[in-house]
Amino acid sequence: MRRPFFEEIEKIPFVGVESNEGLGYRYYDEGRVVAGRSMKDHLRMAVCYWHTFCWPGDDVFGDGAFERPWQAANGDPIALAEEKLSVAFEFFEKLGLPFFCFHDRDLAPEGQSSAESVRILDAFAEKAAAEMERTGVALLWGTANLFGHPRYAAGAATNPDPEVFAYAAGQVKHCLEVTKRLGGANYVMWGGREGYDTLLNTDLRREADQLGRFMNLVVEHKHRIGFDGTLLIEPKPHEPTKHQYDHDVATLHSFLQRYGLEGEIRANVEVNHATLAGNSFHHEIATAIASDFLGSVDANRGDPQNGWDTDQFPNDVAELALALYEILGAGGLGTGGFNFDAKLRRQSLDPIDLFHAHVGGVDTLAHALLVAADLRKGGDLERFVAERYSGWDETFGREILDGKHSLADLATRVATSGVDPHPRSGRQEMLENLVRSRVHSAR
Ligand code: XUL
Ligand code: CO
After folding, report:
1. For this structure, is 422 an active site residue?
2. Cα 33 to Cα 19, 40, 94, 238, distances in angstroms
3. What digits encode the pLDDT tens for the residues 324-346?
4. The ligand 1 atom nearest the CA atom of 103
5. Tens digits of per-residue pLDDT, 39-74?
6. Given the DSSP bridges, would you call strands 230-233 and 265-270 parallel, antiparallel or unpaired?
7. 104 and 232 assigned to the same domain
8. Which of 63, 146, 232, 408 could bond to 295 as cystine, CB 3.0-4.6 Å?
9. Where are the beta strands (DSSP E) in 17-114?
10. C-beta of 194 in contact with ligand 1 (< 6 A)
11. Distances 262 to 10, 257, 292, 293, 294 between C-alpha atoms, Å
């Protein structure tokens, strides 16, 4: 039997809001029913494999600062990945969240050839399946890393070389099959290098068509193998590229329409990607819901002082409450969930910091859920919005939308029947006060 890595840490208990002691959930009580569902089923939270177990604590100027035994410099990559796997499942169990997420290369090291990489990943998928069976922790989503290896420096699907496209296609095919085998609820595609560094060497029209073709191939394969999870694309405006094609939710939606992918692929919205694009997270969630294609969420936060993807753990209840308010209104996330795509700060060296970080993120989401549920229950925002647009539910409004009046008809109506609309207050400050008071009162 392996000695536990997090030896001093027991399963994180629910301790309640009044408690100030030690590691425990103050808000996340997994079985507590809120707005008709348990907190666990609303939030469907996941730990990400990459930041939590693969990132060594380096940055662009500095080396890895963490001393994790499974990251030892000269170790056997297979043995180290096995150790990482068992530590990861020990962590999932102790944290008590229902899901995890991985990239193929997080779970299993890359081999000398693509065939060897396939064999290694298959072997690790089997080991992961055994751990999932033992612990009951399930897979929220899998994804292929199409950005780390130098072969993808000029993109995967959008590469000027069709052989790179083929290589990426093979990698996604296999990772999708592994995700299906592990019962994954979704499969994610993040186009980290599907973009450009300079337009001087880039053919935008070709790259868009290549990306559209690639996504159609993935959809076809999903149906061919009978994967019943959801395909997701995760927008981001830039980093590592200067410009990424899936810039934000609205851009992604027109891409899906342009290439006949609507209804097949949904959005995986990440908080820090939203803010990097100059949008709020609330905006991105509401936009995806307004086009009926919200799929899942990568929970984290940026830092207003930094212009990059800092991937910090969430700690802003108000920000997440507004997103959850929209999600509750849309009936939930379906197969999606909240994946903590978040990492420690480089000075947070100790294994226990991983627990502090996740417990804080989990409680922020649980608290935000309570706020959102209170706002829905009170119904004030909904009533205000419904009343604001009520003219469109009446005969005249409906006729306009049904195409019963031409521009000329409308002009005549205004001229002849004395239409003289008066502006009404949007009451923004009153509504903001309402949200703030719920943030303070929700328990
Ligand atoms: C990068 C990012 C990725 C995706 C999965 O910014 O968010 O980790 O979530 O590839
Ligand atoms: Co992400």
Report:
1. no
2. 21, 9, 22, 39
3. 999 999 999 999 999 999 999 99
4. 10
5. 999 999 999 999 999 999 999 999 999 999 999 999
6. parallel
7. yes
8. 232
9. 33-34, 37-38, 45-48, 99-103
10. no
11. 45, 6, 10, 8, 12
Question: What are the phi and psi torsion angles at 402 (to 5°)?
Answer: -80, 5
Distance, in Å, from the CA atom of 215 to the CA atom of 132, rounded to the nearest integer, reads 29
Give every CB contact of residue 268 below 8 A, 6+ residues apart in sequence: 141, 186, 188, 190, 232, 233, 234, 295, 296, 297, 298, 336
Note whether 245 and 192 are within 8 A (CB): no
Q: Where are the beta strands (DSSP E) in 104-256?
A: 138-143, 186-189, 195-196, 230-233, 243-244
**Residue with CA at minimum distance from ligand 1 atom 4:** 190
Radius of gyration over every alpha carbon of the chain, rounded to an integer in angstroms: 24
- pLDDT over 90 for what percent of the chain? 98
Q: CA 117, 339, 110 angle in degrees (round to 5)?
A: 10
Domain span holding position 112: 37-378
Distance (Å, whole) CA 354 – CA 88: 11
Taking the C-alpha atoms of residue 38 and residue 259, their distance in angstroms, rounded to an integer, is 38
176 and 296 within one domain: yes
- Give tens-digit pLDDT for 372-420: 999 999 999 999 999 999 999 999 999 999 999 999 999 999 999 988 9
Whichever domain contains 71, its CATH number is: 3.20.20.150
104: Cβ below 6 Å to ligand 1? no
What SS3 string covers 363-408?
HHHHHHHHHHHHHHHHCHHHHHHHHHCHHHHCHHHHHHHCCCCCHH
Whether pTM > 0.90 for this model: the answer is yes
Q: Answer yes or no: is pLDDT of 1 > 90.
A: no
Active site residue 103: yes
Nearest CA to ligand 1 atom 10: 190
**Any atom of ligand 1 within 6 Å of the Cβ of 234:** yes
297 and 405 assigned to the same domain: no
Confirm or reject: Cβ of 236 under 6 Å from ligand 1.
yes
- Kindly report the CA angle at 113 between 115 and 152, in degrees rounded to 5? 110
| Domain final residue pick, 378, 401, 425 | 378
Residues 207 and 342 in one domain: yes
Are 142 and 104 in contact by the 8 Å Cβ rule? The answer is: yes
Ligand nearest to C-alpha 270 = 2
